[in-house]
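>> received
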Amino acid sequence: MAQTSQNVVLSCLDATILDPPKQTLNGVFYNHLLSLKNRELGVFSPNQPVYIVRSIPRVFCDPRINDPNCIKVEPEELQRCNQEVMGADICNRDCPWANGACIQNNVGPGSTRCCMVNYQKNGPYFECAKDTNGQVVCPSSILAQDERAGGIRVAEDGHIETGLKSSLILALNTKESLLADSEGNIFIPAAHSYTIVGNDHSFYGLQVLSDEAMNENEAFNNSLKLAVFAEIEEIVPSATNCTTVYWDPYGKIIDSLRLEPIQNVIILLKNLNSFNQVVNSNFPNNPTFRNPDQTNAAGDFNFAVNPGTYYLLPSHPDFNFPSDPLLLDNARSVLANVDPNQEYIARDKLYNNSEEGIVEVARESQRRDIILTPKDQNYAGTTPIILYAENLRDEDNQLIRGRISHPKSLVKIYLGNTLVAQTETDWKGFFAVKILGETINSGTAGIQIIAEKTPLVQANKPKVSPFGLFAKIFKSVSAQTNTTTSRAYSLSLVPVRLSGFVFDPTLQVKPNAVVKLQIPALGNLTYSQTKADADGFISVDSTNLPPFGFVLAVEDKSNPTKTYQLTIEDFKKTNGLLYEETGANLYNNSYELTKPDSQTVAKILKETPRQVSPTTLSYNQPSPNPKPNQASLVSTETKKNPSSVFLFALIGAIVVSGAIILILKSRVKKQIYY
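>> returned
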């Protein structure tokens, strides 16, 4: 059997928020600073370059690209956009803040002040850091060469994935100084990280070494090493146990009745200028600053500002600010019982007066949470949203982690229709749960995640007058909103081993083929590679598999110019007979999976082309059309919910019946009167 050689090594490193934080980086003020160092000692080759990259689990995406993974955010979110970049057919919405009409704003040549609906897709999405001189620390050979292609991008403004605002700057004067020390370790004393898409980031050290020739029986020696930065206190040394670094938001906005987060609240930031006047804040030299800000589904907002005195002005059409002091006292009382440590809401510093100054000084972050009062006394709260989730291989298991918009939510994990695990989020909405590989059976479908919010306040059943009944029915049907349970979030399982036959697009096996395991999110960098035997069989254990999504790049030894990629689903489909014969699968190592005897091999190679249609394999599918697909956009926007149509028809029938009854009553009254 051919040897498998690992080209990428993943291991956790520490990402520590600086305390007290350094306030400047090359003369520029930043408040999102951390230090980075590797946890697994000696993981890198000594005295060799190490490149620092950042991973984001969920990012924005361009709806003009025909990408089935690019999905509109629900409930609807808006972000600023430029018509000259996105086009007037996409960037055409009024922004939900003051003076937000979609018009030319005359700020710069061709600039517009418009908004667009947010679309997002799952990562991982990788960005490479810069040094303090603005030099990219990664070589161009590993960077994405096309905006539409996968791979590592540069952490800078202009990418739709990070909301057009992004930075990852290392406190280094030159990228040439970014070397592993003589013991194979790396330490970055200060790094600044920021994106609009969120602060839930993982950090990686990546090392590329020179390739060495491969002989007939084994793969290349190590040529790429990748190490992960993560928080010290919560991490066991493993690439897949890395948690993301998260900075407490500048504030959170919740409602006074349910104490649940409110999305799409517009927060305008004001400050005292040099003339002691209160003006709208503006920092043109700060690339991470935006004003006003808008809360996400978790109610979070954040401003990165210089020292000074600031004021907040929140607004939302369905809520009042400021809130009545009695309502605030009641909210404080409930929060004191359910959240005594103030992890969810800092009730001691609730902000309820837009004229109350907030003094921001160096080395001290100020947090102000806000409680708004719903205008609707029967306000039902907000629906929990799965902000992001990702699945990583953790040795021979599946590790699922993510964040829910609502605190203390119950997270349920399904394989197909079977509930296999559940857990509760913390007060910030973070969760992590493990699925043991030994529990995953052959033929198991992908992962489905559902979140159910936990009520912080016991709701009283609202009283509805007879005259308000119709309005209530109409409103509930129009909204069609379940405020208790989130939409399902889908993830793929990550193989814990890779054993089977390598078939080409014509469903013929490829004897002696070189098989590289490549990571599309890293621009198809090779993680490890092996060589098929004379029957086209390969076997790769978990120690040589990437912890997240990968593909197989197959090279024909007899014709090196013919290379094709197989997805994991392709590999599973073409090896269906093998897994039926052995009862094994790619996600459970408790079942032995070795190469079968020669008679079984002959059967599999003969029957597979008969049972598997080549058209079902991804490498025989036409490439997605990169041009805008306006028809699909329109159809997505105008699709109707069948249940809504039925209910509206029912309401129409009720209205007609009610009208007939009223007419009959009117006639009866007239007859009696006369």
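>> The chain has a mean pLDDT of 77.
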